[in-house]
# Entry
Amino acid sequence: MLNNLAPQSPDALLALIKLHAADPRPDKIDLGVGVYRDEAGATPVFRAIKAAEQKLVETQESKSYLGPEGDTGFVTALMPYIFGTDATRGGRIEGMQTPGGTGAVRLALALVQRAGAKRVLLGTPSWPNHAQILADVGLEMVPFAHAKSDGTADMDALLGAIEQSGEGDVILLHGCCHNPTGVEYTDEQWDTLAAAIATKGIFPIVDTAYQGLGNGLEEDAYGTRAIVDAVPETLVCYSCDKNFGVYRDRVGAFYMVAANSDDLPAITSNANALARANWSMPPDHGGAVIRTILRDPDMTQMWLDELQSMRERIRAVRERLAAADNEVPALDLTQLARQNGLFAMLPISKEQVAQLREDHGVYMAGSGRINIAGLTMDSVDQFITGLKAVTS
Ligand code: LMR
# Structure
């Protein structure tokens, strides 16, 4: 039986982690997988997480099963940050915990597939796992370009794709800090997109994995809220990996926005059934820790301060790269300052990416994506020197 399986290549992005670890060069630079790194190149556990874990060790009374929906206290505590005041829109929103944002995306796509969807519009390039999950749940991907070469949103392409969509189609959007392009829709662009989606009557799914790493927690929620307020129903996928730094604890949430609160029991029962069949219930620890933070004003403030310093560091590196634009005439680095979040795409070839790795110790995705937070003020110069060498 198992001999029938054709070998699959390992996930290219995750393979970079091992490749980088095996490189003995002390000045190697890891711009691969999307984790936040501080100015020392480390990804430390947040102080707020440590404090909440300590409290949890002392107070947690049981690790008995919860249910497919996980820690509902965690799910509810996040809602004001995502949806703002009137976080349930009059009882029309209900959520559940998922194993990471990936679990939420899986659930969203499986749920629309179960509801009869066949096609999903996806602006490309996107997070490569979007296409993999789509294919795995049996949905057809309808790709369209969504970014212009100057690093801004291609609204004509976006609106054109929506215009050409048909009844029952789904569109998958990144809530903020687009992965991998860094392109950020302005508030006006979000309003235009939300109106076009509502007029066409297609079904939006919003994937938000970087809230707070762009312009601010509130600012980064604008797009999600614009969609939620424009359409009768939608699904929101949420990751706490980056904004709480709990990557390997797998903490995500999935929110179902129904046209009427009466519709929610049927929707959530299907989501629960899918969760049960996939992972039964999500891992508890990270959700319980984040619930502990969000119910404690001092820990919440500690978390907000840490998030702000991350955001400011990412912004400083972006500005520093943009300021080096003259040194790399082949590329437009100025657009990095106009973009947001951990990522940017450099229009360089796979060969140039390999050359950067071999000659300059710079590890980045073959697509040309860089993780901005993998750079420090000290390593930017080495990166720029490498970029200049491989592009001239
Ligand atoms: C990334 O894009 O680097 C992150 O979202 C990590 C992942 O799971 O791919």
Remarks:
- The chain has 15 helices and eleven strands.
- The first strand starts at residue 29 and ends at 30.
- The mean pLDDT is 96.
